[in-house]
Structures are given as structure tokens and as C-alpha cells.
Amino acid sequence: MRDPKRVAILISGRGSNMRALVEQADDYDVVLIASNKPDADGLRWAADRGLNTWALESKGVSKEEYDRRLSDALEEHDAGTIALAGFMRILSPSFVEKWRGRILNIHPSLLPKYRGLETHQRAIAAGDTISGCSVHIVTEELDAGEVLGQAEVPIEAGDTPDSLERRVLAAEHQLYPKILSEFVVR
Ligand code: GRF
Predict the structure, then answer these.
(1) SS3 for 120?
(2) Residue of 17, 21, 88 to test ligand 1 pocket, by largest number of atoms within 8 Å of CB
(3) Catalytic residue among 107, 120, 136, 173
(4) Which residues pair with 30 in a beta bridge?
(5) pLDDT tens-digit profile of 87-127?
(6) Residue nearest to atom 5 of ligand 1 (CA)
(7) Domain residue limits, the chain
(8) Terminal-residue alpha carbon distance, the chain
(9) Among the listed residues 50, 13, 9, 17, the one whose alpha carbon sits nearest the alpha carbon of residue 169
(10) CA-CA distance, 170 to 172, in Å (whole number)?
């Protein structure tokens, strides 16, 4: 039985949610930061702080092979929970099966609204007055697993996708560490 408090964080880019998870890791241990982009800014930040890092470029590697190698790295570090934080790859069904119920993701909308990309643009275009973010369990269906927690963010008159993204991101940085902390002891 893996220890859920041993958390691996998967990123593809700037990694601001990863930083929030690392900086608020009072109730869990961050055992690995992994990325499909070897030059991800977040990876450098993590390495500078002495965290374990792993990166493998996905070009030229089949999806099954990629996910097998990722899974091996997670097992080598004895990860018990996987937190996706801006990880821009859809995980294969066999990966999801292997880690079922132990993969979390943060998504910048109030799910089930606006699964997928361009969530802020879609919320503004729809005339919504409230947006926000959700932490959910990852399943084979994109952004569709059980929602563990949400934070609401009002949409203000004159908001652009960028201005809304900034405020939702600030809410993400509070919500994700809180929900992950609750998840690892449940
Ligand atoms: C965040 O908006 C998150 O909700 C989404 O991808 C973005 C990642 O940003 N899944 P960052 O890399 O954590 O700064």
C-alpha cells in the first residue's frame, strides 16, 4: 500500500500551482516533480530548491511507452498521490487504471462547466458572473472525475480572459494545497 502523503507533482510549464503545493506542503511530502517538457520553468525552480526532478521529452516516444516510463519514475520515488499542475498531456487509460483514484488535477473553471481549454474566454463569452476553479480526481474522461473542491471567483465587468485568469490562478494557489492536504488523510 502506497503512502498517499508521498506526493509527485506533474507539470508542463511555469508551475505556479506546483510552487503553491510545495510552499504549503505541511501535511504531505513532495517526493518528485516530473515534466514532459525538460525546459519547463517550474522544473528549474524545483531543482534549485533541491527537489527531485524527472523530465522526458514526449516527441518520438509512443504514448504507452512514455506513460510506462513516467510510471516507473513515480514508483522509483514511491509516490502515493499524483498531483497534475498544468500537465498538458492526456494520460493513457492504462496509466489511469494503474493509479486509479490517486491522481488529482486542478482545472480553471467550476466543473462540470467548461471542460478542456480556454475556460476563461468561454465563461466570459457565455455572460457568466461567477467563475472559479476545481480540484478533481482524474479518470479516463477529460476533466470529468469526482470534484473534491471548488473556489468561486466573480467575473467583473470589463474582465478579459487574462484578467480573469490572474484572479482564478490566485484562487487555485489557495484551493489546491488545501484540497490535497485533505485528500492525503482521507
Ligand atoms: C492553471 O490554470 C491550471 O488550472 C491549469 O493549467 C494552468 C497551470 O498553470 N490546469 P501553472 O503552470 O500552475 O502556473
Answers:
(1) helix
(2) 17
(3) 107
(4) 7
(5) 999 999 999 999 999 999 999 999 999 999 999 999 999 99
(6) 86
(7) 6-109+133-150+172-185
(8) 15
(9) 17
(10) 5
**Band of residue 143 on the pLDDT scale cut at 50, 70, 90:** very high
Cβ–Cβ < 8 Å for 95, 65: no
Pocket of ligand 1 (CB under 6 A): 11, 13-17, 85-86, 106-108, 133, 169, 172
**Would you say 34 and 9 are in contact if contact means Cβ atoms under 8 Å apart?**
yes
17 CA closest ligand 1 atom index:
13
Q: What is the pTM of this model?
A: 0.97
Beta bridge partners of 151: 133
CA–centroid distance, 24 to ligand 1, in Å, is: 17
Distance in Å, CA 161 to ligand 1 centroid: 14
Residue 173 known to be catalytic = no
Which CATH code fits 6-109+133-150+172-185? 3.40.50.170
Atom of ligand 1 nearest to the CA of 168: 2
Smallest CA separation from ligand 1 atom 2, residue? 108
Atom of ligand 1 at shortest distance to CA of 11?
12
The answer to whether the beta carbons of residues 123 and 111 sit under 8 Å apart is: no
- pLDDT, tens digit, 9 for 90 and up, residues 11-62: 999 999 999 999 999 999 999 999 999 999 999 999 999 999 999 998 889 9
* Whole-number Å distance between alpha carbons of 79 and 29: 9
